[in-house]
Structures are given as C-alpha cells and as structure tokens.
Amino acid sequence: MIVAISISPSASDPEAGVADKVAEAVQVIRDSGLPNETNAMFTNIEGEWDEVMAVVKAAVFKVAESSPRVGLVLKADIRKGFETGQLAAKVERVEAALGN
Description:
By secondary structure, the protein is α+β, with helices and mostly antiparallel strands. It has a 4-stranded antiparallel beta sheet with strand order 2-3-1-4, covered by helices on one side. A hairpin with a 4-residue loop joins strand 2 and strand 3. Helix 1 runs antiparallel to helix 2.
C-alpha cells in the first residue's frame, strides 16, 4: 500500500511556520526504513498496512510531543498485487502515457 500523509501541527512560531515540526515527522518516517518521498504537500510511504500505520502513528505522536494540536490528512492506495515498488512505478506509468 501507499499512503500520502500531511501532518499539520499548530503554529510553532509567530509567522505560523511549521517546518521544524514537519521535519520531525519526516525524520521519523525516514528512520523507519520504509520507502518514502516528501514533496511540498505530502509525504508518501510504501509498505504493508501494519508497518505503514505504525510509522504514521509514530510521526504524529512525535509532533504531538511539542504541539498541543496535530492534524493528519491521510490518503491510501490499497491495490492487491501491487504492494511494493509502486512509488516509482505509478509515476513511470503516467510518464509513459504522456510519451516521456
């Protein structure tokens, strides 16, 4: 499965910047060893259900250590027979359809 998550802590500075808190969550995800990628809006994580959800929980709880409120947006792609290698493969299929 692939999940796309966005963790939104309450504002941590007067300009409403949250980069430091988001970085803490991303570090938990990277340290998990699961395939992942981060873009401007989400972090994608690939793996089996239980291991992915454990990482999501750990990332949220890490941010909750220093933020009184944490929001989580999660989108999942669960496709039998396509459990691994899909972070790159999905993009490759789109690029191929575009003729790239």
